[in-house]
UniProtKB/TrEMBL annotation, chain A:
Major location (coarse): membrane
GO molecular function terms listed in the Swiss-Prot or TrEMBL record: G-protein beta-subunit binding
InterPro entries, alphabetized: G-protein_gamma, G-protein_gamma-like_dom, GGL_sf
Subcellular location: Cell membrane
Stated name of the protein: Guanine nucleotide-binding protein subunit gamma
SUPFAM superfamilies for the chain: Transducin (heterotrimeric G protein), gamma chain
Keywords: Cell membrane, Lipoprotein, Membrane, Methylation, Prenylation, Transducer
SMART domains recorded: G_gamma, GGL
CDD domains, sorted: GGL
GO CC annotations, alphabetized: heterotrimeric G-protein complex
Any one GO BP annotation for this protein: G protein-coupled receptor signaling pathway
Topology relative to the membrane: Lipid-anchor
TrEMBL record, chain B:
InterPro entries for the chain: G-protein_beta_1-5, WD40/YVTN_repeat-like_dom_sf, WD40_G-protein_beta-like, WD40_PAC1, WD40_repeat_CS, WD40_repeat_dom_sf, WD40_rpt
PANTHER family on file: GUANINE NUCLEOTIDE-BINDING PROTEIN BETA G PROTEIN BETA (PTHR19850)
Subunit text: May interact with RGS9; this interaction stabilizes both proteins and increases RGS9 GTPase-activating protein (GAP) activity, hence accelerating the deactivation of D(2) dopamine receptor-mediated signaling.
WD repeats: 101-142, 191-232, 233-276, 277-318, 330-362, 363-393
One Pfam family it belongs to: WD40_Gbeta
Protein's name in the database: Guanine nucleotide binding protein (G protein), beta 5b
Homology family: Belongs to the WD repeat G protein beta family.
Keywords recorded for this protein, A-Z: Coiled coil, Repeat, Transducer, WD repeat
Organism (species): Oncorhynchus kisutch (Coho salmon)
Coiled coil: 54-88
GO biological process, one term: signal transduction
Amino acid sequence: MARDMSDIDILKMELEQLKKEVSTPREPVSKTSKDTMDWCEAASGTDLLITGVPDDKNPYKPEKGGCIIT
Amino acid sequence: MCDQTFLAITFGPCDSCSENRPLMNLYIKTEPINYCSLCMEIMACQGLASGETLKSLKAESETLRKKLEEERKKLHDVELEKVAEKAEALGELNMKTRRTLKGHGNKVLCMDWCKDKRRIVSSSQDGKVIVWDAFTTNKEHAVTMPTTWVMACAYAPSGCAIACGGLDNKCSVYPLSLDKDENLAAKKKSVAMHTNYLSGCTFTNSDMQILTSSGDGTSALWDVESGQLLQSFHGHSADVLTLDLAPSETGNTFVSGGSDKKANVWDLRSGQNVQSFDTHDSDINCVKYYPSGDAFASASDDSTCRLFDLRADREVSIYSKDSIMFGAASVDFSLSGRLLFAGYNDYTINVWDVLKGTRVAILFGHENRVSSLRVSPDGTAFCSGSWDNTLRVRQEGRGVGRELKQGGTTLYG
């Protein structure tokens, strides 16, 4: 669809979009970064890719075994 | 042979003002235009005006872009990394490959987890779509699509169906039956119809609606049952390569990324493009929402991944290194959003600390590009699909024991 549009139409579309975007409400990075960090810290206790999974609950638990051949 | 050097003047009604006047015999692209001299001059000047319109549009566009940049800059009072200095450092990671899923005959292009946290659907260049049980590595279902390059696949939230598509420009839904012998292709339903390849698809909160992205530059929302187009999203000026739906708690939006280097955020209901980000230097191959829904990450051919904050309306972090020179194809966050896993065209997966902006691990093992990467719904593992025809399921192996250490550098396989 975008491929069939002429350059003027694409420019008009971009202009419309920019006009809308200039007026969107924004918050300062200091506030949003802090919120992101707080959210992350709150959830990190349950993040199993950081803490690891205890063996007894791990469905991918590697088989302990094998034998030693001497 | 010389052209006519005299003009035979015709007299009659002008095509434009309808008055009886001497007409100028003008041909534009072999079409005769019978205008009087006055109307012809007006037309010629309008031609000039449209030329100026192109210029003035560009100029207006530039001024607005500058204004937007200024507005965004005003709120850029601190860097994310500075705020993150207070965060606890991550310990050393020890990712281990737990399962290698072999069975595809050609490049794995896409994969998705089922909500039951154990099944995976993957699609390949050779047209095969396979449903695996990641715990046992068994193949539960296999479908052969009537097309090659199946670039998108998705699992339905109920776990009872899969959707896939690619060069056939369609998205088809296959209900999964428990009967192993049943021919899945017989129950296939064509849902989405685009005018170019399907690059991405995902079910919304139910099995009833599918969101698709396409090389035709649009994204679209479809009703599965009727195949009807519910909403279409126009705004990219080139192929749309990826999309991701916002986590359900945060509302009805989705983000898409394209070859036009832009990432756009859309409102599902109205079809409006609500925010746009264009700081990448090349095609955006993958976008993923941050688990809280207030940000999203992108992976691009410019070899960087970036984090965009939706409330601050700007890019807040770049994950890159001079030593990383190949494009990033796929990204996903861990459950807490602290880790960002990114698969690259240099066959590696880099794990980034989202807050501090540093790389915490490189994972080797694939023998070709990593094309697709997803963390499981419960966050216990993540799966990566590659052009080496395999998928690998990896986990954090801390506390399990064995590590491979060679001369001080820790290698994770």
